Amino acid sequence: METELFVRYGPALLYGFGITILCWLAGSIGGVIVGFILACLNRWGPHALSWVIYVYVEIIRGTPFMIQLFILYYGGPYIGLVLSPVQAGITSFVVYGSPYFAEIFRSGFNAIPKGQIEAARCVGMPETRILWRIILPQMLVPITAPLTNFFIILTKETAILSVVTVPELLFQTQTMAAETFTFVEPFLALSLFYWLMVLVTGWIGAKVEQRVTRHLKRA
Amino acid sequence: MSKEQMTTTADDAIITVRNLSKYFDDFEALRDITLDVKRSEVLCLIGPSGSGKSTLLRCLNFLEQYDGGEVHLDGELIGWQDISHNPRKPLSGEALRKQRQHIGMVFQHFHLWPHMSALDNVAEALTSVKKLSKKKAKEAAMAALTKVHLEDKAENYPANLSGGQQQRVAIARAIAMEPQVMLFDEPTSALDPELVGEVLSVMKDLAAEGMTMVVVTHEMGFAAHVADRVAFLDSGRLVTCVPPEEMFGREPDDARVRSFLQTYRERNVV
Q1: Which of A166, A176, B10, B118 has the fewest CB neighbours in a 10 Å radius?
Q2: pLDDT tens track for A56-101
Q3: Which of B65, B106, B113, B166 to mutate to test the interface with A (most CBs of A within 10 A)?
Q4: Do B112 and A219 count as a contact with CB atoms less than 8 A apart?
Q5: What pTM does this model have?
Q6: How does it sit in the membrane (chain B) (predicted)?
């Protein structure tokens, strides 16, 4: 193992890690927000809209992420959408993630017993208040695990962004490998970085789960 | 309905139900129900399963949209904007919420919000609907919990309360809003026999304080001893509505009522 390599390529790898985290965080948080809006529109919006959402969900879930990324990055300019690699990476992450998040939120909405919502209406609570006070806090219980899961899946999907020259972790690692003719060291480092992200994500997920299930513990 | 009819029937009626009908697709759940509930009256709705008792109750606060007829609370038409217009248009969410604040409801399965303590369950609508300050809401919520003898359980989550205690919290949640009437939908049907008594006793206290109550129940003892009148429904129709002495005291005229009550007689309930 040539540790000297890490000294030389360390800054590049760290930069790549930074770009990976930026794309992952911005993309998946954007995906959560868009997914939540989709799920809300699907539940409370006009009926025609839920068909549009259904088609969107099916198309995005039915095609590979790499193809979506290609279409956005290379096809975008044809309709006047010129994005930098990082911009394209984050946007495609939002597009790719939002249907999955929307489905997770949909299942969360459905997990709240109808009677609780009726009880809230009976004391005159407005629908938005019911959403924030009754539905959301409780739906975190069934959706935290699938949300954490999907965040973890997305950490590794960031590697695909290298195909449109986003200077993220895999891109830097490949550069390092190509320039030094080493493979074990760069890809070992790469795995460690992803593993670190997954570890932290999983830990945060577990903490959130502990917190949102407080009320279910019997004294 | 014309104005003079309103005034003649409304002497001290707080709820008036006129020619109420309700369909679930093709199924006729309620047919032509006409009924008054007077101020401070306790009206029990009894009858076999599927007879429309709960549906009738749920029409009173528009949890079910009734199709024909009218429901008035204190002279105000419940749920619809105006019934001369066809098809009927429901009230705006805002207007419906205003009406519902005057109508407390208690469910068979409590429907407490499990992620909130007993106190927060009661205080929630006081802050979000009545716009009380947090402190005022807590005080009022505590007063309501004290009324149902649960002041020492205020910090418990529903998961740590017995069924009877949960139902009493649900009652506190409703009465904290200071409604004009209270609706109970089989409030003791989901409880262990041991826990039924504590809920019924809270309801008796409420009745004694002069609360107007409409109670769907299978507790014939409660109907016999607390109700001012008992209504019997069968197949979506109001068969009879009489004082309990008439319902339980003598052999009923109607064959359907007779056979229904017979099953209770055999168990020495009434």
Answers
A1: B10
A2: 999 999 999 999 999 999 998 898 888 888 899 999 999 999 999 9
A3: B113
A4: no
A5: 0.83
A6: Peripheral membrane protein
